[in-house]
Design goal:
42% of the residues lie in helices and 18% in strands. With 195 residues, it is of the alpha+beta class. The strands form two sheets. It has a five-stranded mixed beta sheet, covered by helices on one side. The longest helix is centred in the first third of the chain and has 30 residues, at 18-47.
Protein backbone atom coordinates (compact mmCIF):
# COMPACT_ATOMS: atom_id res chain seq x y z
CA UNK A 1 0.00 0.00 0.00
CA UNK A 2 2.89 2.36 0.75
CA UNK A 3 4.34 1.77 -2.73
CA UNK A 4 0.95 2.44 -4.31
CA UNK A 5 0.74 5.69 -2.35
CA UNK A 6 4.20 6.72 -3.65
CA UNK A 7 3.15 6.10 -7.26
CA UNK A 8 0.02 8.19 -6.82
CA UNK A 9 1.90 10.97 -5.02
CA UNK A 10 4.36 11.10 -7.94
CA UNK A 11 1.46 11.50 -10.36
CA UNK A 12 0.07 14.40 -8.33
CA UNK A 13 3.45 16.15 -8.03
CA UNK A 14 4.41 15.98 -11.69
CA UNK A 15 1.61 15.83 -14.28
CA UNK A 16 4.20 15.05 -16.98
CA UNK A 17 5.04 11.83 -15.10
CA UNK A 18 1.39 10.99 -14.34
CA UNK A 19 0.91 8.37 -17.08
CA UNK A 20 3.90 6.29 -15.97
CA UNK A 21 2.91 6.62 -12.30
CA UNK A 22 -0.67 5.53 -13.02
CA UNK A 23 0.58 2.61 -15.15
CA UNK A 24 2.89 1.51 -12.31
CA UNK A 25 0.04 1.90 -9.80
CA UNK A 26 -2.27 -0.19 -11.97
CA UNK A 27 0.34 -2.94 -12.29
CA UNK A 28 0.85 -2.94 -8.52
CA UNK A 29 -2.90 -3.14 -7.80
CA UNK A 30 -3.17 -6.08 -10.22
CA UNK A 31 -0.37 -7.89 -8.33
CA UNK A 32 -1.99 -7.05 -4.99
CA UNK A 33 -5.35 -8.32 -6.24
CA UNK A 34 -3.80 -11.65 -7.28
CA UNK A 35 -2.10 -11.99 -3.89
CA UNK A 36 -5.31 -11.26 -1.99
CA UNK A 37 -7.24 -13.75 -4.15
CA UNK A 38 -4.55 -16.37 -3.48
CA UNK A 39 -4.57 -15.72 0.27
CA UNK A 40 -8.38 -15.96 0.33
CA UNK A 41 -8.33 -19.24 -1.61
CA UNK A 42 -5.72 -20.62 0.79
CA UNK A 43 -7.73 -19.55 3.84
CA UNK A 44 -10.94 -21.06 2.44
CA UNK A 45 -9.23 -24.36 1.61
CA UNK A 46 -7.45 -24.60 4.97
CA UNK A 47 -10.63 -23.86 6.94
CA UNK A 48 -12.81 -26.16 4.84
CA UNK A 49 -14.95 -23.26 3.59
CA UNK A 50 -14.04 -23.90 -0.03
CA UNK A 51 -12.77 -26.67 -2.28
CA UNK A 52 -10.26 -26.69 -5.07
CA UNK A 53 -11.65 -26.86 -8.60
CA UNK A 54 -9.36 -29.64 -9.83
CA UNK A 55 -9.63 -30.51 -13.48
CA UNK A 56 -7.48 -32.05 -16.14
CA UNK A 57 -5.78 -29.20 -17.97
CA UNK A 58 -2.88 -28.62 -20.31
CA UNK A 59 -0.12 -27.01 -18.31
CA UNK A 60 1.61 -25.73 -21.43
CA UNK A 61 -1.51 -23.82 -22.55
CA UNK A 62 -2.11 -22.37 -19.09
CA UNK A 63 1.50 -21.15 -18.87
CA UNK A 64 1.32 -19.65 -22.38
CA UNK A 65 -1.70 -17.60 -21.27
CA UNK A 66 -0.01 -16.46 -18.06
CA UNK A 67 3.21 -15.46 -19.84
CA UNK A 68 1.25 -13.54 -22.50
CA UNK A 69 -0.24 -11.38 -19.74
CA UNK A 70 3.05 -10.71 -17.93
CA UNK A 71 4.90 -8.39 -20.26
CA UNK A 72 8.64 -8.02 -19.92
CA UNK A 73 11.42 -9.87 -21.68
CA UNK A 74 10.27 -13.52 -21.43
CA UNK A 75 11.28 -16.45 -23.60
CA UNK A 76 8.91 -19.43 -23.63
CA UNK A 77 9.31 -23.02 -24.76
CA UNK A 78 6.65 -25.64 -24.15
CA UNK A 79 5.85 -29.28 -24.69
CA UNK A 80 2.29 -30.58 -24.30
CA UNK A 81 1.73 -31.86 -20.77
CA UNK A 82 -1.48 -32.38 -18.78
CA UNK A 83 -1.96 -32.15 -15.01
CA UNK A 84 -4.86 -32.29 -12.55
CA UNK A 85 -5.10 -28.84 -10.99
CA UNK A 86 -7.22 -25.88 -10.03
CA UNK A 87 -6.62 -23.56 -13.01
CA UNK A 88 -6.90 -20.31 -11.05
CA UNK A 89 -4.51 -21.40 -8.31
CA UNK A 90 -2.05 -22.87 -10.77
CA UNK A 91 -2.12 -19.68 -12.86
CA UNK A 92 -1.47 -17.67 -9.68
CA UNK A 93 1.54 -19.87 -8.80
CA UNK A 94 3.04 -19.59 -12.29
CA UNK A 95 2.42 -15.83 -12.38
CA UNK A 96 4.11 -15.43 -9.00
CA UNK A 97 7.19 -17.32 -10.21
CA UNK A 98 7.39 -15.24 -13.40
CA UNK A 99 6.77 -11.96 -11.54
CA UNK A 100 9.43 -12.93 -9.00
CA UNK A 101 11.93 -13.53 -11.82
CA UNK A 102 11.05 -10.23 -13.52
CA UNK A 103 11.11 -8.12 -10.34
CA UNK A 104 13.95 -9.72 -8.35
CA UNK A 105 15.95 -11.39 -11.09
CA UNK A 106 17.18 -10.00 -14.33
CA UNK A 107 16.28 -10.28 -17.98
CA UNK A 108 15.94 -12.26 -19.99
CA UNK A 109 13.53 -14.53 -18.13
CA UNK A 110 13.13 -17.97 -19.66
CA UNK A 111 10.11 -20.22 -19.01
CA UNK A 112 10.05 -23.87 -19.99
CA UNK A 113 7.14 -26.32 -19.66
CA UNK A 114 7.58 -30.09 -20.05
CA UNK A 115 6.46 -33.29 -18.30
CA UNK A 116 4.48 -31.64 -15.50
CA UNK A 117 7.15 -29.04 -14.77
CA UNK A 118 7.32 -25.29 -15.13
CA UNK A 119 10.87 -23.97 -14.94
CA UNK A 120 11.50 -20.23 -14.66
CA UNK A 121 15.05 -18.95 -15.03
CA UNK A 122 16.25 -15.40 -14.56
CA UNK A 123 19.68 -13.86 -15.07
CA UNK A 124 19.82 -11.66 -11.97
CA UNK A 125 22.06 -11.64 -8.91
CA UNK A 126 20.74 -14.96 -7.69
CA UNK A 127 19.10 -15.96 -4.46
CA UNK A 128 19.12 -13.45 -1.62
CA UNK A 129 21.35 -14.98 1.08
CA UNK A 130 19.25 -13.19 3.74
CA UNK A 131 16.36 -15.50 2.82
CA UNK A 132 17.29 -18.80 4.42
CA UNK A 133 13.81 -20.09 3.49
CA UNK A 134 12.34 -17.97 0.67
CA UNK A 135 9.07 -19.94 0.84
CA UNK A 136 8.34 -19.04 4.47
CA UNK A 137 5.52 -16.54 4.73
CA UNK A 138 6.87 -13.40 6.35
CA UNK A 139 10.47 -14.04 5.26
CA UNK A 140 12.04 -10.65 4.59
CA UNK A 141 14.86 -10.28 2.09
CA UNK A 142 17.27 -7.41 1.54
CA UNK A 143 14.70 -5.55 -0.58
CA UNK A 144 12.13 -5.59 2.23
CA UNK A 145 9.84 -8.06 0.44
CA UNK A 146 7.83 -10.43 2.63
CA UNK A 147 7.77 -13.72 0.69
CA UNK A 148 3.99 -13.92 0.37
CA UNK A 149 4.13 -14.75 -3.35
CA UNK A 150 6.60 -17.62 -2.94
CA UNK A 151 4.72 -18.86 0.11
CA UNK A 152 1.58 -19.10 -2.05
CA UNK A 153 3.52 -20.95 -4.78
CA UNK A 154 4.70 -23.52 -2.24
CA UNK A 155 1.16 -23.96 -0.89
CA UNK A 156 -0.31 -24.38 -4.41
CA UNK A 157 2.34 -27.01 -5.17
CA UNK A 158 1.62 -28.86 -1.92
CA UNK A 159 -2.17 -28.99 -2.36
CA UNK A 160 -1.60 -30.44 -5.83
CA UNK A 161 0.81 -33.13 -4.52
CA UNK A 162 3.69 -31.31 -6.18
CA UNK A 163 6.78 -29.40 -5.18
CA UNK A 164 8.66 -26.18 -5.88
CA UNK A 165 12.37 -25.49 -5.66
CA UNK A 166 14.60 -22.44 -5.99
CA UNK A 167 18.28 -23.00 -6.76
CA UNK A 168 21.12 -20.91 -8.13
CA UNK A 169 21.19 -21.12 -11.94
CA UNK A 170 24.40 -22.11 -13.70
CA UNK A 171 26.19 -18.90 -14.70
CA UNK A 172 24.14 -16.69 -12.34
CA UNK A 173 20.52 -16.01 -11.62
CA UNK A 174 17.86 -18.25 -10.14
CA UNK A 175 16.16 -21.38 -11.38
CA UNK A 176 12.63 -21.95 -10.00
CA UNK A 177 10.90 -25.25 -10.75
CA UNK A 178 7.26 -26.07 -10.05
CA UNK A 179 6.58 -29.81 -10.44
CA UNK A 180 3.12 -31.40 -10.54
CA UNK A 181 2.06 -35.00 -11.14
CA UNK A 182 1.33 -35.60 -14.82
CA UNK A 183 -2.31 -36.50 -15.58
CA UNK A 184 -3.00 -39.77 -17.40
CA UNK A 185 -3.66 -39.57 -21.14
CA UNK A 186 -7.25 -40.78 -20.67
CA UNK A 187 -9.37 -37.64 -20.07
CA UNK A 188 -12.08 -39.77 -18.45
CA UNK A 189 -9.78 -41.01 -15.71
CA UNK A 190 -10.33 -39.46 -12.30
CA UNK A 191 -7.51 -37.52 -10.72
CA UNK A 192 -5.49 -39.35 -8.10
CA UNK A 193 -7.36 -39.26 -4.81
CA UNK A 194 -10.55 -37.92 -6.43
CA UNK A 195 -13.67 -39.83 -7.40
Amino acid sequence: MATLRLYLDAALRDPADARRAVTDARSLTDRMGRMVAGLLARTRAETGAGELDRQRLFLDQLVEGVVAGCGGEIGLSTEPTAVWADPELLALAVRNLVDNALVHGGPPVQVRVAAGQVTVRDHGRGLDPALTDPFRRGAVGAGGRHGIGLSLVQWVAAVHSGSVTLVPAPGGGTLATLTLPVAPDDAGTNAPGLS
